[in-house]
Design goal:
This protein is 40% helix and 23% strand. The longest helix is centred in the middle third of the chain and has 17 residues. Strands 12, 13, 14, 15, 16, 17 and 20 form a seven-stranded antiparallel beta sheet that branches. Strands 3, 4, 5, 6, 7 and 8 form a six-stranded antiparallel beta sheet that branches. The chain has a five-stranded mixed beta sheet with strand order 1-11-10-2-9. 42% of the residues are buried. It has three domains: 119 residues, DNA ligase i, domain 1, CATH 1.10.3260.10; 184 residues, D-amino Acid Aminotransferase, Chain A, domain 1; 127 residues, Nucleic acid-binding proteins (OB fold (Dihydrolipoamide Acetyltransferase, E2P), Beta Barrel), CATH 2.40.50.140. The protein is of the alpha+beta class. It has 20 helices and 20 strands. The N and C termini lie far apart (55 Å). Helix 3 packs across helix 12 and helix 5 packs across helix 6.
Length: 553
């Protein structure tokens, strides 16, 4: 399929207000004989690679703006792009503006006399960009991306700019794609959903559904080396758990980072909660599993940190180890890691997602010599409360209460797993803006603008501001934060910058107040940074609904 044809289909979808009609347009696109359905699906979702794939484009707003400016002509600067963005409000519209009819640049988009680009060719070029590493990689990426813009007409440029920044803005989310796969290839939604859970690849599932039908979809299983989304817990109380289940599986709640371990019988790969490959930064965890894991398996657990004297360290130290690329041996001496595993979702060729927790734990204990999280099965509230106190005194965050009959639900947060910890007022907020500092902090971003999720659907996520935070961060942490945020700078006015919502902070506060100063209508009083939640996506931030509930409580 030519890119211009695909872009025109995207414009139809974007302009269609009806969800049902959008699904029909997507179904038509899937059924187009020229459609490479795997690539089409990923592009519709603003992705080049499946969610589990460790390959990343690593193209931030600034690099994208530079590529657009370069393609538009020698008299177009990044400042022009940023000014247009401020007035037009969205990078796709800005990219579309610099078209073959424009007189601003000598090399306006679509000016090169070449055959029409296909979406397969675009995918290949984007794969090339993702593969560029090492010294000068940003400039090399910019040149390749600029050339792609130069091959685009205005409508193609509109969606290319959005695609490389993972923000398609066409009103299509994962639910719409799931439903369209079901409708296009006559596969029950439940079967599509299941295949998506175990593969984490919408494009792959769509391709199998088209080529092999329901029988092929049923063959999609867990695969060692292909991580899945972790099952999540929600906050609750011991009383709630006892009123719901006859017996409770009680475990400690760790102040660590989630990890998924995959062992194929020869090698071990480790994945973070965001499904990033963290094998290389965590050699001691690999060594631990090599010594203690006897069968091919996929395990779910957490990694906790301690200093050289054995004292517990906060979970941010684990995340720093996750991100470490150099001097790993030195880092492992300074911050020691210990894994604890509490679930087994695949063991020696057997998928266990549909097995109860009690059976999964049995498999875990049978194949892992050491490293299983402590567990007690009980219906005694006094025993649970005593365990909670003992865990807290031992340095754990609290307790986990689980339904022993529960199945493993990838990516789902429900009432089968409950977390209980002492009341600490914190919220997970997304950084949407910041301000360059003064004096010794002039080169650091600070005064971070905080937001929570106001709404989230197939049209995208809307964030509303709840305040600013500038306390609880050292100079070293500000320097690290600045480097973390720099790729997501969208535009700058004076010292104020607008940021693409990507980075999540855990923020402590004294109370929630009503306020007309922020778009949410609420403000956090005396906010302070508790932790950078590198293990969380912006879509996992807390919600405005939660703010409203906390305010009323």
């Amino acid at each position: 399929m030519e890119l211009i044809q695909f872009a025109n289909r995207l414009r139809e979808i974007e302009d269609e207000p009806s969800d049902l009609s959008i699904r029909e347009l997507i179904v038509d696109l899937f059924n187009d004989e020229n459609s490479d359905v795997k690539i089409v699906v990923r592009f519709l979702l603003g992705r080049v690679f499946p969610a589990w794939d460790d390959q990343k484009m690593d193209i931030g707003p600034s690099l994208c703006y530079n590529a657009i400016a370069s393609a538009a002509g020698s008299d177009v600067t990044i400042e022009d792009i940023e000014n247009d963005l401020a007035s037009l409000g969205e990078i796709g519209v800005v990219a579309e503006k610099y078209n073959s009819g424009s007189q601003r640049g000598l090399f306006s988009f679509g000016s090169e006399e070449t055959a029409a680009m296909t979406i397969s060719e675009l995918y290949s070029d984007l794969y090339t960009i993702a593969s560029i590493q090492g010294t000068g990689s940003l400039e090399k990426k910019r040149r390749v991306l600029s050339n792609l813009f130069n091959l685009c007409g205005p409508i193609e440029a509109r969606y290319l700019a959005r695609l490389v920044l993972s923000e398609m803005r066409i009103g299509v989310g994962e639910g719409a794609i799931r439903d369209a796969i079901s409708a296009a290839f006559d596969i029950p939604i439940a079967d599509v959903e299941r295949a998506l859970q175990v593969s984490n690849d919408f494009g792959f599932v769509a391709e199998v559904a088209r080529d092999e039908g329901l029988e092929g979809v049923h063959k999609i299983k867990l695969k060692i080396g292909r991580p899945i989304s972790s099952m999540l817990a929600q906050s609750s109380t011991i009383e709630d758990a006892l009123s719901t289940w006859k017996r409770i599986s009680v475990e400690p709640k760790y102040d660590g980072a989630r990890i998924q371990a995959h062992y194929n019988g020869d090698s071990i790969r480790l994945y973070s909660r965001n499904m990033e490959d963290v094998t290389n930064p965590l050699p001691e965890v690999v060594e631990f599993l090599q010594e203690n894991l006897s069968k091919p398996a996929i395990l779910d657990g957490e990694v906790v940190a301690a200093d050289s004297d054995g004292n517990s360290l906060p979970f941010q130290e684990v995340l720093r180890r996750f991100r470490r690329k150099h001097n790993i041996e030195k880092a492992r001496k300074e911050v020691r890691l210990r894994p604890y595993f509490f679930d087994c979702i695949h063991a020696d060729g057997i998928d266990l997602l549909d097995s109860p927790l009690s059976l999964r734990r049995g498999h875990l204990d049978s194949i892992l010599k050491k490293g299983s999280s402590p567990l007690v099965l009980t219906d005694d509230s006094e025993q649970i409360k005593k365990m909670e106190l003992e865990f807290l005194e031992s340095g754990f965050e609290g307790i986990m209460l689980k339904n022993p009959d529960s199945l493993y639900a990838p990516g789902k947060r429900g009432k089968n797993w409950l977390k209980c910890k002492p009341s600490v007022d914190t919220l997970d907020c997304v950084i949407t803006g910041a301000e360059w500092g003064k004096g010794r902090r002039a080169n650091f971003l600070g005064a971070f603008e905080l937001a929570v999720i106001s709404s989230a659907d197939d049209s995208g996520i809307v964030y509303k501001n709840v305040g600013r935070v500038g306390t609880g961060i050292t100079d070293a942490e500000l320097e690290s934060m600045t480097e973390l945020l720099r790729p997501y700078i969208e535009n700058q006015t004076g010292k104020m910058v607008t940021l693409t919502p990507r980075i999540v902070l855990e923020v402590g506060y004294e109370e929630i107040q009503r306020s007309s100063n922020y778009s949410s209508g609420y403000a956090l009083r005396f906010p302070r940074v508790v932790a950078v939640r590198g293990d969380k996506k912006s879509s996992e931030a807390d919600t405005l609904k939660k703010i409203e509930q906390l305010f009323k409580s």
